[in-house]
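Input.
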Amino acid sequence: MISRRCLLFLLLLFFILKSEASDQLIFRYHECGNFTGDSAYQINRDTVLELIYSDKKIDYGFYNFSYGEGPDKINAIGFCRGDINQEECRGCLKKSATLLTDRCGEQKEAIGYYDLCILRYSNDSIFGIMETKTSKYFDMEGKTVGNDAFNQTLIDLLDELKSVAIDGDSRKKFAEKSVKVMNESSSRSDVNDTIYGLVQCTPDLSKQECTECLDSAFGNFSRWCMKGCMYLGPSCSFRYDIVPFFQSIFNNTESPAPQPSKVIAPALSPKPRKGKSRKITTAIAIVVAVVVAGILVMGICIYFERRKSRPEFEGQGKNEDESEAETGDDLKVGDLLQFDFETIRIATSNFSDANKLGEGGFGTVYKGTLPDGQDIAIKRLANNSKQGETEFKNEVLLTGKLQHRNLVKLLGFCLQKRERLLIYEFVSNKSLDYIIFDPIKRADLNWERRYKIIKDIARGLLYLHEDSRLQIVHRDLKTSNILLDDELNPKITDFGIAKLFDANQTHGMTSTVIGTYGYMAPEYIKHGEFSIKSDVFSFGVIILEIVCGRRNTKIRDGDNTEDLLDMAWKNWKAGTSSDIVDPILEQGLNKNETMRCIHVGLLCVQEDIDVRPTMSSVLLMLNSTTFPLPEPSEPPFLMQPKRALSISLSEQYSGPTKSTDSGSGSQFTQGSTSKSSVTDQ
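Output.
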């Protein structure tokens, strides 16, 4: 007999599924800014938002209103995707207005993004102004990769759609189309992908502004997306996918009488269905979901009801192998493999010293070769590492869900009795600190390569903070946790102490401070407070280390002792920043880029967390030679431990050194053993 609790759960599940399935709008994200407690402004805001979603005069999906006077004046824009009808547009804007006023109740600026509409308001003028600062990319088909034929077809499609959209008038700048991908090896189009594409700009932009907005959007999507991508920005947006998403494909809805701009008709797209077909499909999906979920829950309930009388339900009768199997099941993520220990033992020649790459607080890292010839790196948890057990699970659960060219790829893991192994792609050129601080090897990193490494690390960090499906704070970013592949492309590694943030979480607190001195932000050292801005601080230190070719440790020059941040600040104030640039970079050095990097590095290591830029701003600063940079203030005192070793200038280029600190931070640095961790209970 099924218990009452199971029946109650089934009933609750039914209503949840029914409620979620009936809501076809997908909310992506929002941002708020500029606090205000002014009730007059809030009244004006509510008034203008209601005007937008209740207005029935404008039928092109673009609504621009202003309301109020002086400091209480509010400007608002509602913008819907060009393929939806008026009723859907106003419904989307109404939901967005409700959400924004709830989440940004006492702030003067807000923007919210649904798949089908964008709503924004501000006390500043926003009409006719091209803006990209709150834009985001969403990977719609993250597990599939396009081939050359797919990529070329996609580029041609987006260029065609852009040309049509920018030629739109003041009512609509929108285009959509679908095309078949024809592989060179096949003459049959029906066995290849169809790409569905859609682009649009807000109609208040000029042709030139629309072009600039879309060019900016197209220029970056390949870093974040594969066979499906959606870009949402305040002034323009685009989407492409290998599955139909146009509303015109699912609904035979009449378009507004006047055609504001040319729309490319979907080529080779599915046959339009009648308006009721979508409702029928949705209803069927709801019923199937509820029935399947109900059967599943009933099965689970019956299973546990029967197990209650068995001693092993309370954990009795389990052997070590069974416990490991359950742990392995808990850790399965995406496409990660659970490797057999014997396979890894053979791949590493029984974990021989000849295959050892490095050691750290986690344990030892080995190189291995699988039977198919693939090289791998294996991180082996030390048997006496209690902290490593937690870090092992943390790294599997976090890293297994991340896919980015500037992050080391986790291939799988292994659990057998007391053995805990993490298996990664092998990165041949070891860690950045192994090269950048070596007096001979660092000559391989000319300025062009160093500048690219800086920007690529920034892209990987931006992915962790803003562009992945998770928001992750690394907490131990440093040069020894940056690996370099065959082409010297950087890859961020070691997520053992990383933290996953909720959607609305801005910071976290801990009583156990784990990290590396010289890279930890002051608020983390003093108060255990960490956030994405803590990683920004660490990144600022890395920039200065790469430019200067020196570690951020105490440097003794005669009777004076200072760290790299002190040195960089003093030379910046004195106008002699060129004196701290790695002298080996004399040939081929771009002085403007090096000075800009030092400037950005100092901005990242500001003591005031609110003054430090976000990684999206950092990338903009690094990629633009004209973007104005604010003046930095003096970096904070780094609170080095008394037992930390001070090294002379002559030792700066002596390569990695082992730390005597006893810590519990994890380490995955191929070839580097430099680690300094502290636990503050």
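The mean pLDDT is 77.
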